[in-house]
Amino acid sequence: MFCEHGRAPDESVRRWQDRLTPYWKNIAGGCHLNRDIAALISEAGFACRDLQTMYLPGPRPLTYNYWGEAVPVQSPIAPSFARCNRR
Prior knowledge:
Layout: E1 2-5, H1 11-27, H2 37-43, E2 46-55, H3 60-63, E3 64-72
Antiparallel strand pairs: 1-3, 2-3
């Protein structure tokens, strides 16, 4: 299971995430606002089950969240959801 905030789908919000991340990671324990969580999970060899995304209440550059379940691609249940695709 995972729940992470990350790169938003809206270009104007992404620009703010890119501007804020260098400062944000210094005050928020290394957290990056602009990471594409779905891509990172896939690149690490996992598949996503029931990936969901949305803005939570608060400033949009800080509140876009991803959550779901990641399983190793070698898992017998992984082929049915081999890539992490946003809903």
